[in-house]
Amino acid sequence: MQDILVRSATVNDIAHIMDIEHESFCENVHEDITVFRDRITTFPDGFLVLEVAGHVCGYISSEIWNYSENVREDMFYLGHSITSVHDATGSELYVSSIGILKKYRGKGYGKLLFSELSSKVTEKYNISSMILIVSVQWMPAKKIYESDGFRETKRIHGFFNDMANSDAIVMRKYL
C-alpha cells in the first residue's frame, strides 16, 4: 500500500500543480500559474494537494462566495481573480478546479480530494451549499458529482473554449 497524504497546497507546489493542470485540461481550458498562486495565498484552507508516495499527483481548489440563487456567469470565468469574489464570511463553497495525473485516475483519489476539501472547509467556515461547473464533455465527472448529491441547476452555452465550445453544467449541492 502506497502512502497517501492530502494536505494544504503551498506556493512550492506550483510546478506540480501546473503539470497536473496541463495534463488534465486542453490548452484553452487550463488556468494560468498566477491564478493558482493567488488561490493558494488567498484561501489556503481551500486548496489541497494529494501526494502518493511523496509525489504530488492531484489538487483541488476552491473559493467561498456569498450565496446567490442566480450566480453571475462571469464568476465562473477561466482566469477570474479569486480576490474579486472570495469572501470568508460567505456561505457557498465554489469548487473551482480539480485535477489528477492520468496514471493516478480511477483509484478514487478525486473523491478523496473532494471529501477532504468538503470536510475541512465546512468544519471551519459557515458553508451551507457547494457549487461547481463541469463540461458536458466530462460525463464521468458529472456522475461522480451527482453521486455526491450535486444537482444540475443550469447550463451556460459555449462556456468552455475547447474544440467544441462545450456548454458548462452548473451543479449545486445543499448541505
Write out key terms for the chains shown.
single chain, 175 residues, alpha+beta, Aminopeptidase, seven-stranded mixed sheet, 7 strands, SNAT-like, Acetyltransferase, transferase, acyltransferase, Acyl_CoA_acyltransferase
Given the helix and strand composition, which structural class is it?
alpha+beta
> What's the mean pLDDT score?
93
Q: How would the global form be characterised? A: globular
Beta-strand content estimate: 25-35%
Task: Pick out the low-confidence regions.
Answer: none
Count of folded domains:
1
Organism: Methanomethylovorans hollandica (strain DSM 15978 / NBRC 107637 / DMS1)
Keywords: Acyltransferase, Transferase
GO molecular function: N-acetyltransferase activity
Protein name: Acetyltransferase
Question: What's a quick, concise take on this entry?
Answer:
This protein has 175 residues and is α+β, with helices and mostly antiparallel strands. The chain contains 4 helices and 7 strands. 29% of the residues are buried.
Which secondary structure elements does this structure contain, and how are they paired or packed?
Blueprint: E1 4-8, H1 14-24, H2 33-42, E2 47-52, E3 55-65, E4 92-100, H3 109-124, E5 129-135, H4 139-147, E6 151-156, E7 168-174
Parallel strand pairs: 4-5
Antiparallel strand pairs: 1-2, 2-3, 3-4, 5-7, 6-7
Structural summary, described in words:
It holds the Pfam family Acetyltransf_1. This is Acetyltransferase. Keywords: Acyltransferase, Transferase. The protein has 175 residues and is of the alpha+beta class. It has one domain (4-174): Gcn5-related N-acetyltransferase (GNAT) (Aminopeptidase, 3-Layer(aba) Sandwich), CATH 3.40.630.30. Helices cover 26% and strands 29% of the residues. It is built from four helices and seven strands. Strands 1-2-3-4-5-7-6 form a seven-stranded mixed beta sheet, sandwiched between helices. A hairpin with a 2-residue loop joins strand 2 (47-52) and strand 3. The longest helix has 16 residues, at 109-124. 29% of the residues are buried. The model has no long low-confidence stretch (mean pLDDT 93).
